[in-house]
Write a structure and sequence with these properties.
This protein has 129 residues and is α+β, with helices and mostly antiparallel strands. It has one domain. Helix content is 46%, strand content 15%. A four-stranded antiparallel beta sheet has the order 2-1-3-4. Helix 3 crosses helix 4. The relative contact order is 0.19.
């Protein structure tokens, strides 16, 4: 499953793109190593940094955490576990950065459930049952 924060297709607008390159390579493993409160604060910081750029850089997160994917991204993509083909590609509801309390909003909860179902469907039978 890839969580995408969509942006212009032009090269990185940052003169020093090391920070963004580091995030694009290792953010998922970095975020997963944190407790949930710290992870949420870092995601909020990331959203603020991203929103403050003009034009906004493209950031791709690969994660298995469905709620994190929906919260992080403006678009989510589910890949088939065997073939690697795209089985779902949908925008997430709402705008980035997320408003306070957005995780409890019905639109967020529905997107999480839809994404979880697509991910379960994309997993091979030996994994899901």
């Amino acid at each position: 499953m890839a969580a995408l924060i969509a942006a212009p297709s032009s090269p990185s607008p940052m003169g020093s793109s090391g920070f963004w390159r580091l995030l694009s390579v290792s953010a998922s493993s970095f975020l997963s190593a944190l407790d949930s409160v710290t992870r949420r604060h870092l995601i909020e910081d990331l959203h603020r940094l991203w929103a403050g750029r003009a034009p906004r850089p493209a950031i791709v997160f690969v994660t298995h955490d469905v709620e994190e994917a929906v919260y992080l991204a403006g678009r989510t993509v589910v890949l088939d576990a065997v073939s690697g083909r795209v089985v779902m590609d949908r925008p997430t509801p709402g705008v980035l950065p997320r408003a306070p309390g957005w995780r409890a909003a019905p639109a967020c909860r529905e997107a999480v459930e839809e994404l979880a179902a697509a991910l379960a469907h994309a997993m091979p039978d030996r994994v899901t049952g």
